[in-house]
Amino acid sequence: MSMTTYDSFGARARRFSPRLVLSELMMKQWFEPVIPFFVMIALWIAFSVVIRDYSSSENILSLLRLFAEFGFVALAMAFCLITGGIDLSVGAIFAVGNFSALFFLLVMEWPAGLAILATLAIGGAVGAMNGLLIGYLKARPFLTTLVTLIILRATVNLLNTHYATSFATNSTDSNVWDFLGSGNLFGLPVNAATLLIVLLIGHVFLSRSRYGWHLTAIGASRKAARHAGIRVNFMLFATYVLSGVLCAAGGVFYAARQTSTDSTTGVGWEFQALTAVVLGGVSLAGGKGTVWRAMIGALIVFSLTNGLVRSGVPGYVTSAIIGVLLLAAVGIDVKWSKNRGKVIQKTYVNPAYFELSPPPSVKSGDASPYAQNDRLIHAEAIGLDQVEGPEDVILDRQDRVYGSTRDGNIIRFSGPDLDQCEIFAHIGGRPLGMQFDQDENLIVAVAGMGVYGVKPDKTVYKITDETNRTWYKLNDDSRLRMADDLDIAPDGKIYFSDCTTRYEMTTNTLDILEARPNGRLVCYDPATKTTSTVINHFYFPNGICISHDGKSVLIASTSLCKIFRYWLEGPRKGQTEVLIDQLPGNPDNINRASDGTYWLALVGIRTPTFDLAMRKPDFRRRMVKEVPIDEWLAPGMNHGCVLKFTEDGRTLESFWDPTGVSHSTLTSMREHKGYLYLGGLENNRIGRVKLTGVDESWSGYEAYWGAKRRDRS
Amino acid sequence: MGFFDQFLRDMRQVVFRNSEQNAIPSMDGALSPNDKLDQCTPIGDPLPGLDDVIATPDGAVYASAGRRVYRLSGAGFSERAVVAEFDGDAGALALHPDGRLLVCVAGRGLAAVAQGGSAPRYLAAAGGRPLVGLTGVAAASDGVIYMTEGSVGRGSDAWMRDLMEKKKSGRILRCDSALESAIVLRDGLAWPNGLMVEAGGDAILYTEAWTHSVLRAQRQGAGIGASQPLARNLVGYPARIHPAGGSDLYLAFFGVRTHLIEFVLREDDFRDDMMRTVKPEYWLGPALSSQHDCLEPMQIGSIKALGIQKPWAPPRSYGLLVRMNAEGEIVESLHSRADGAYHGITAACSTPQGLVIASKGAGRLLLRGEERQ
């Protein structure tokens, strides 16, 4: 559900930013091979236009049959590259596989099944030789496999000349063999179908299995992988064995299809495979790549070779084109992997336009309820220089004061003069909003962690740290990024704000500057122990307060400078409406007041230049890029302001520290037994001022769970 | 500003590296920040509208503040007397070799006040344009008077709008000792904001605020030669220059450049809208002082942390006075940082009792005693 009352279709359309989509797309692993993917599609379309019947299903099937063997070889190469190595002997092993299959079948006259197994075993054995040298003897993969390539190639050529006549004269009538050569499986050529199955297994192996992760880890950093306890030697050995087996499998299919061998079988395939795999986006430096990328690259190289030959382009030109492609792919690979992070960083912040209504006057002496005064300047200080940034303050039934501080602590002051200071609990993260539940557990919203509870005996326990993911969002938003404030409904449900899903506590200024509805209202239901998002896409929701009658939630939107009401029950259940439209500043926490009204803290005051900047998204985008963080424009925050407003959204009065002498960045206030307690995000104290003409027996706990409840009248 | 304009701007930055946009130099070496201005002793009561201060040969100082020019003398400059009063704000001051006091009067022009209290003589126009906003005046030993005018037809208090409009219509003027035969020596300058005649009397030095530079021009008969920069790409917006003894000079900065202001100066569209819709006191630009008004622009680094305003926070206003040698090198600097009190320095002069500094932002004259130096 979105903020339909505020969000017109036009506003949303204007907010749509292709740059934002792009930056979020670029953070996705699967988006990396997007360029090769489209090149592949484009090649296909181009050849369909140039060559007759190219896109007919017969042609596609016959192309797939031709392609599959190369696919196996490319896959073998991809595995080696991902471990940070290279296997130049793939083409030669392929040729050996081709020869062996024919030899076992035609000369030894073994049954097809046995011949295939023996061929795969030979591939594995050759791979094991590579693997021994590279994995255990720490030989360089490039030279080792180059030597293997030369030796194998010479051997195959020798054997070929020796057995050529036997191959030509002998034949087999094995059905299995014929099926392998020309049969179909699931409507696909049998070799392509097998490749597909191998790819699926390879994908699961590489991306979901422990050993796949080990392979990638070794490629990313061999030393780190060793330090992490991965058996680097064995894994490398196994990879080259796998590579050998895959190449031999390609050789078997090739043998079944061609039933002949010559000195050109698999010549140059190592470079074609290398080109293909790098083109697809498997990094030459290792540690990055998927089987699909390898296949995309292989399809490009294959269709280019095949298509050019069929268009009548001479073979050497095709080779040259492939060479140039390899060069370009390697260059782009190096540049891209180096700069991808920077590109994301430069495009991630995407400010949106929005216009705020003109602010009411805050000029001192004006008739406005927001007029500045000095009612907070002389606030009594509690724990001066003992607390660091008490974002929220709350009092328990024993009149002790709690503050949530920036060092991850809940700090507690007790004693008649509130001068005994202790760390009540250490939660970690950045504790922000707090509330007591019926059992006097202190429920805390912790930025960077989620919602936590502290029992009266000081045990800390987790309540929730994730909610349901929005299915259409690219950014995974299931984690709670910055739980900000919370309140508890009479039925025990905890409503809390997660003010941004794109930034963190340390970068939440960017969210304000971006001015997009990145936040949400989330609800935790203790009865079912489930967490769900109530309002998605909210402009920096901050303060949360359940209304006195328990029928609605008040939500402060810091960037919109508005207060919203979300109905929990009654005829308007599920609807969101604007309660206060024009605030002179950025609202923070909301809390109940003793007389049935509400307190609201303004953390920032809107300045004319900041309001102007909000109407200039490009200005803000360039500012974020060109100006250092410390110099970014902000709302006025060196001032403290607390407001009191009624159930129907009328502001009654304000309490100010206009110069921020004692209370700047004022974020919260709590009324308790005739006093108003003040907390500030960046302040060095908790303050309190005496209120006059209020119910001096009223306290927050009583108003929620005790005698002062107003929801049962 | 469309995409294309931005692109052109970026290209200009690449091709013409040394044109108007230069990286702000960091304050290090002789410019290392300190609290020397805040350690100075304020002289007497505040002088609202304080602008210029000059030394007299007998050890006193003249200071212009509001519509008046004061003479301060005695130990610690505790004796204060009004020398002259005008119908416009008194600005830059200079002593003529013949003893007359030259005062730039807002809206009127240059006034020459003779001793004895007779009515001042005025130079009201030059080059066919009235002298509404003179910003600096100096007299050579041969009696010739030089003046700077910030922007033709614009009062000197409208400097902020001039900066935001990126105007270049300031002038350098000359007249004889009888305030006659005024001629325009140079025009099209980016807010010339003060000048002095070099110690030998061969050349004049003047500051140009919007280009952050001090320039030198040789005197050639009735005219001046081509301007040579003495110091360019300074850290702030220079105000007046006064001799500091020897060949050194005191250069005051009424504000310092910040990344955000430089950025805003590149954003034409934002500036236009700001000038149209926002009151000038809340504009994003240099200020003489911060009123701690919550509607003033604010920057992230200025947020008070644990009750403390960081001295190194990006300043809305700043106090900076430097001593510069004849080669244009800064030898000493006095600062009042973001958390300091004496911002918007417009002038300083040396006296036997020490250095007297005018902080226009605070409206205070400051004395930096010799024993402290």
Tell me briefly what this model is.
The complex is a heterodimer of chains A (713) and B (373). Chain A is α+β, with helices and mostly antiparallel strands and 713 residues long. Chain A contains 19 helices and 27 strands.
Main attributes of the structure:
heterodimer, A: alpha+beta, ABC transporter involved in vitamin B12 uptake, BtuC, Neuraminidase, four-stranded antiparallel β-sheet, disordered N terminus, B: 373 residues, mainly beta, globular
Number of helices of chain B: 4
Q: Report the average pLDDT across residues of chain B.
A: 91
Number of strands of chain A: 27
Number of helices of chain A: 19
Sheet bearing the most strands of chain B, described?
4 strands, antiparallel
Portion in beta strands of chain B: 35-45%
Number of strands of chain B: 27
CATH class of chain B: Mainly Beta
Largest β-sheet summary of chain A: 4 strands, antiparallel
| Average pLDDT for all residues of chain A | 89
Q: Reading side by side through the largest sheet of chain A, how are the strands ordered?
A: 3-27-26-25
Q: Specify the CATH architecture of the largest domain in chain A.
A: 6 Propeller
Q: Strand order, biggest sheet of chain B?
A: 1-27-26-25
Report on this structure.
The complex is a heterodimer of chains A (713) and B (373). Chain A is α+β, with helices and mostly antiparallel strands and 713 residues long. Chain A folds into two domains: 66-346, ABC transporter involved in vitamin B12 uptake, BtuC (Orthogonal Bundle); 380-705, Neuraminidase, CATH 2.120.10. In chain A, 42% of the residues lie in helices and 21% in strands. Chain A is built from 19 helices and 27 strands. A four-stranded antiparallel sheet of chain A has the order 3-27-26-25, with no helix packed on it. A four-stranded antiparallel sheet of chain A has the order 4-5-6-7, with no helix packed on it. The longest helix of chain A has 34 residues, at 315-348. Chain A is elongated and about 110 Å long. In chain A, 50% of the residues are buried. Chain B has 373 residues and is mostly beta strands. Chain B is built from four helices and 27 strands. Chain B has helices at residues 3-15, 159-164, 259-266, 268-277; strands at 41-43, 50-55, 61-65, 68-73, 79-85, 90-95, 101-105, 109-113, 121-123, 125-126, 129-130, 134-139, 145-149, 170-175, 183-189, 192-197, 203-208, 213-220, 223-231, 236-243, 249-256, 298-299, 319-324, 330-336, 345-351, 354-359, 364-369. In chain B, strand 14 and strand 15 form a beta hairpin. The longest helix of chain B has 13 residues, at 3-15. At the A-B interface, helix 17, helix 18 and strand 22 of A face helix 3, helix 4 and strand 22 of B. Strand 22 of chain A pairs antiparallel with strand 22 of chain B.
